[in-house]
User: What shape does this take?
Amino acid sequence: MRWLVTGAGGMLGQDTVHELRGRGEDVTGLARAVLDITEPAAVQRALAGHRPDVVVNCAAYTAVDAAETDEERALLVNGEGPRLLARACAARGAGLIHVSTDYVFSGEARDVPYAEDEEPDPRTAYGRTKLAGERAVLAELPGGSAVLRTGWLYGAHGRNFVRTMLELEAARETVDVVDDQRGQPTWSADVAARIADLGPRISPDTGAHGIFHATASGEASWYELAREVFRLAGADPDRVRRTDSRAFVRPAPRPAYSVLGHERWRAAGLAPLGDWRSALHEALPHIRKEMSQ
Assistant: This one.
């Protein structure tokens, strides 16, 4: 199969290209500087030139707080860009895997995981624009696309919470972390592997299309995640101190509950991603290696 990965310079984009190449796939990764998915002619040229069987869209406007005052630009990247990709894929008979987010849900007054078919209710500009992208992809390419919602991503490349905790462990005696937001810490390499698993299965004749939740199993607060990072790093977890969201007020409110259900994977013949603690244990050496370079 031939694969085309957009947004290939980001954390998940890099991991996806690496995973596909490791499986011997024919993959082209295009970073934002090479392919602007909001430009119709550029999208058409990219698909005509590379003739992919599957496109993986990792390109996104991810500045959650900035989107509150820049929603028009965020909507262009997160909403119109995916629409252009889906149209181009439909015209050429290619499948599309589009990466979305837990921010399409409100995360309020909740303690039960969100199912894939629950009605979204975003409370931020970022969430609204990502939901627009989901709907555009599913409308333009029904049966030939998969939307993968993920969240709390960390990995070896780029800035992320786990890497920040490792840096702070080395620099500070104590760290204050919120304990009133819950989600599923998810290793980007695990999501990349699931993308590689799903791509060949996408078909209107199977269950391998529509919305999937690509997050690790289990759940934790940021405080619990930070303590586990410290523990695995050989540091005292009690150096992580509990606080709440009032200590870190931001322009875009963070969902209090971002736990997603995983029932749809079975329809595609795949198991949900594994437990977040096991994944973190496996991921940490890779992250520390990258940090040392």
